[in-house]
Amino acid sequence: MKQTFLLVSFLFFIPSLVLSADTISKETKELYVKSGLKTQIESFSSILLTQIDAEIKNDPDKNKYKPNEIKKLAKTIKDVFGASDLSKKSLKILSQELSQAETKNLLNWFHSAVGKKVAWYEDHISTRAGYFAMNNYEKNITKNPPTEDYKHTIKQLTSNMKVMEAATNIALINQVLVDVAIASLLPNFTKDMFDNISKKAERNKNALKKKVEGEMGLIMLFSYSYLSKDEVNKYLEFTSTPLGKKYFPLMVKALNLTFTKASVEFRDKRFETINH
User: Fold this and answer.
1) 132-154 burial, b if ≥16 CB within 10 A, otherwise e?
2) Fewest Cβ atoms closer than 10 Å to its Cβ: which of 30, 63, 110, 248?
3) What region, left, alpha or beta, does residue 228 occupy, with left being phi > 0 and alpha being psi -120 to 50 degrees?
4) pLDDT score at 10
């Protein structure tokens, strides 16, 4: 599953990862694509910029934001959260955490009939067509409710895949980065303000979690509604294997470390830009 994100304090020191790009195997690179990490990484900066643009446009006092400063902010985001640098970080984590045998076994799963189908539908949900299909699913869910057996299976799948934990924390990451980015466009932005925004987000995490749980519950029901009962059960079986139990937390960890390190870089580069 692709919702694999975890937020820790932006101020924590994240050790440098020592593997070079040359040491990354072709199997790890393929897993990076198959797992959905590549899609998540490549879409992050554009999603963040879209959210920031919406915040500015919806501000009644939007004229206080200087166009030149907005351009500088956008450049910093593209530089820090660019797909190339973030991809390297995630690939290194996968190489460090998975053995060659584990990587090959994971690829075998993704190459299986059920694995291919699962991956296709998990990607489908992030497309424009998938968005409209899910809206239609939501509108008709009262008339055509899922069976209790299906809901129970999806609940187990959600737990095994660490979906709620991951989705809550990516929402938290977005919230902090958007708030910090907007605040940094105004005069007298300080590191204390950055810290306060981060701490405030952490205090509100439980409220955010409840909101995300409702949204992700629907997304999970929709995402696998195209699969047969047997296919969903096979996916559940995979998530319950020793490899599955290692793989899903690892996806959370990979994005956790990747985006946390990038967020620290964003903070430092943003202050550097403001102070020059």
Assistant:
1) ebbeebeeeeeeeebeeebeebb
2) 63
3) beta
4) 29
